[in-house]
Design a protein that fits this description.
Blueprint lengths: L1 H17 L1 H12 L1 H14 L5 E8 L3 H16 L5 E4 L1 H6 L1 H8 L5 E3 L6 E4 L4 E4 L8 H19 L5 E2 L10 H13 L4 E2 L4 H7 L3 E3 L2 E3 L16 H5 L7 H16 L4 E7 L1 H4 L3 H13 L1 E2 L2 H9 L23 H11 L7
Length: about 350
């Protein structure tokens, strides 16, 4: 995992060097988050969002996920949340029975490529990331996307509408995003959710690019350009954030977005990270009470079906809700504030 940590650090340095705008937005979010979020809300309202929506999706990147995904899914359904799923084709085939069962509840599946992009290291006893698009020839990426598309058609019997790139944080350069969007348009896709929180803060929560929608993932309240995911709080090696910190961040996001007249929380994680974490489910429950839970497909149906389709200039890639009250999550957050937390092993 040390190599992965070093790679992540080098990736951050490279992105900062190649994308000074990202650095600027990061500093803006650090020092003046209120003004940054106010600008974001203005763009959301201008895009036609009439309330705050909440999309939850899961990347199921390892066999560990299929073992717990049904229990996670059914528990969220009881809260009124129906997540979307991004599963590599090889894992979709091996977990076909479980994932079909999930599809029957109304959940939708995004193309997440075909090949597994994690391998099991027996010495470390854990899965490690691999198959990074930024390290592959474009022909191999095309093959992965097309085979993933064919696999979804075979397993689910339907045309996939959305795509999420594996390890998308490393595939953010302008020419990489353009290549991906061109390929998805060729395949007849409706949307992608493969960009970082900075894109939402810079361009808005939903962006139309030559007929294709891009829906960036959301960031944290305390660090708006950093992804609010489960890896960094529940599973990352040598992590400095804890599961209770996840609840605190979720609480702050709920407080921030509760005052918005329009917006989108696009949250994602991995089932195997949180299947036994009460703080995760409490956080999702709070967000679902503050915002309107919805899937990617129904979100796009909603904002385009009113004859007020959001109109945003194509981005230059170069460059009534319930305010949460006293809940179990609030009690967890209060507890996290008044007592020290221990970092999980």
């Amino acid at each position: 995992m040390e190599n992965q940590t070093i790679r992540a650090l080098l990736s951050k340095i490279n992105r900062a060097w190649s994308n000074p705008v990202q650095v600027a937005y990061g500093q803006w979010g650090r020092w003046f988050p209120a003004s940054l979020f106010a600008r974001y809300q203005d763009m959301a309202v201008a895009a036609g969002l009439d309330r705050v929506y909440f999309i939850l999706s899961f990347d199921c990147d390892t066999p560990e996920d299929v073992e717990v995904v049904w229990s996670v899914h059914s528990r969220l359904l009881d809260m009124g949340i129906c997540p979307d799923y991004a599963v590599p084709g090889e894992l979709l085939l091996s977990g076909e029975k479980t994932y079909r069962r999930i599809r029957e509840t109304g959940a939708r599946f995004l193309n997440h490529g075909y090949y597994m992009h994690a391998w099991f290291d027996p010495d470390a006893g854990e899965f490690r990331s691999c198959f990074f698009y930024d390290q592959l020839p474009l022909t191999k990426i095309q093959e992965d996307v097309r085979r993933g598309d064919a696999c979804l058609r075979e397993v689910m019997g339907e045309h996939p509408e959305g795509f999420r790139a594996p390890h998308f944080g490393t595939f953010q350069k302008p020419h990489q995003i353009r290549f991906l969007h061109d390929l998805l348009r060729e395949l007849g896709y409706r949307f992608s959710s493969s960009t970082m929180p900075q894109t939402a803060l810079q361009r808005g929560p939903v962006i139309r690019v030559d007929g294709l929608w891009e829906i960036p993932v959301s960031g944290m309240a305390s660090a708006p350009t950093s992804i609010f995911d489960t890896w960094g709080f529940f599973r990352a090696p040598n992590r400095q954030r804890t599961p209770l910190d996840y609840g605190v961040e979720g609480h702050h996001l709920a407080e921030r977005y509760a005052g918005f007249t329009g917006g989108l929380l696009n949250i994602y994680g991995d089932p195997c990270h949180i299947h036994d974490a009460p703080i995760f489910f409490a956080t999702m429950d709070q967000l679902a009470k503050m915002a309107t839970p919805i899937t990617f497909q129904h979100f796009l149906d909603r904002i385009t079906g009113t004859n007020q389709e959001p109109h945003l200039d194509p981005p230059d890639w170069n460059e009534p809700r319930i305010v949460p009250g006293s809940t179990r999550l609030d009690q967890m957050v209060d507890s996290a504030r008044i007592r020290p937390t221990k970092t999980n092993r």
